[in-house]
Design goal:
There is one protein chain. By secondary structure, this protein is α/β, with parallel strands linked by helices. The protein has 2 domains: 204 residues, Acetylglutamate kinase-like (Carbamate kinase, 3-Layer(aba) Sandwich); 147 residues, VC0802-like (2-Layer Sandwich), CATH 3.30.2130. 37% of the residues lie in helices and 20% in strands. It contains 14 helices and 15 strands. An 8-stranded mixed β-sheet has the order 3-4-2-1-7-9-10-8, sandwiched between helices. Strand 9 and strand 10 form a beta hairpin. Helix 10 packs antiparallel against helix 12. The longest helix has 19 residues. The two termini are 32 Å apart. The structure holds aspartic acid. The site of aspartic acid has 13 residues, from helix 7. The site of aspartic acid (ASP) has 13 residues, from helix 7.
Amino acid sequence: MGSITCKFGGTSLADAQCLREAAAIVNADPNRRYVVPSAPGKRDSGDIKITDLLYTWHSLVQQGLDATQPECIVAERFEELTQELGLTLDLRERLAEIRADAEKHKNPDYMASRGEYLNGLLMAELLGATLVDPVHYIKFDEEGRLNPVTYDLLGEALRGEGRFVVPGFYGSLPDGSVKTFSRGGSDITGAITARASGSVLYENWTDVSGFRMADPRIVPNAHPIQEITYRELRELAYMGANVLHDEAIFPVREPGIPINIRNTKAPSDPGTMILPARTPKAPVCGIAGQRSFTMFNIEKTLMNRERGFGRRVLSVFEDHGVNFEHMPSSIDTLSVIVNDAELANHGASIVKGIEKTCEPDSVSMTGGLALIATVGMGMAGHIGVAARLCNACARAGVNLRVLDQGASENNIIIGVEERDLESAVRAIHNEFAE
Ligand code: ASP
């Protein structure tokens, strides 16, 4: 077998015991040669993540306020880790540097990245591995997009014998300054490292044994997903299933490196395999839902004969800088569904814009909509899936306000009242879990 990249999330590295468990997992397989740590996360529900403390620290310093509290907590947590793990590493000098740098950097990225950097130093000593600081190898362009030169640069740095630790979450801009990915971005570093190192597998170690068919907060006994394709996962992640950062798939998709989501607290669980392709055994793979959507309903008699009507409607959204999610239509009506965060306070102005640009018979806006995606490549060509889904919702007393199936037949989206979200997800899960 070829080499493996292992990424460990913040909760899997929250204290000394967690770090020991992570090291034991790495040491259990000599193929686990590339290790990507997050910053230490929460030890319990009342705790604060190191990354959050670093953001607070930076913001206080920038406002000229006293930052002693976050600074001390960060220092204490790292000192405790080095001591409890019996490491020789002396982080005092590094922490003093960070303290001095906090003022220099207007942008929080440098500060935010220090949690991963310090944890990377700890992991490297713990594993007897070489630290590869991504600031020199993971490159962004001026617009903050990943520069593909990264793969060669990092690949070169990861050549040679032994193990390597690549701290997650950051790289650098063309001027050499630190830039982070968006929150949870160590997953992306893991995927980049897997590709750059030519790994045959990207293991993403976290605090759950992979994906479940539905959010376990809604369906406590939700069925575990053993296999899922990159594409199915994209659809579910888009609708709120968030075990993995949704951009983590891109680096590994092209070379087809599988991602295995694993649980550090149950290392023998097989977890979920995210694969380029699979042979589906069941029509539905997962269900994910989200609240907070608004639907614009536009009516105009003989709308279907009016050339350019849809374009004019959408141009109003475009002029307001608002993206839309779905656009179900019938002969005389057309609806546009928008995410509330995206819509912000543009609603009334968009209604006015549509009245003026499209002269409809009526236009109204209703909020409080939840969207639910039922995803599975096994649905294509499978007769009766939509019928079962609708019946399950009907039996649960849920009214469907929207029903939309893309041409790929891999995803059926329904829109329901927000208060029905949970019953609908439960009903669909129970109908399709096998
Ligand atoms: N530590 C960063 C965060 O909290 C990145 C990560 O954990 O992936 O977002």
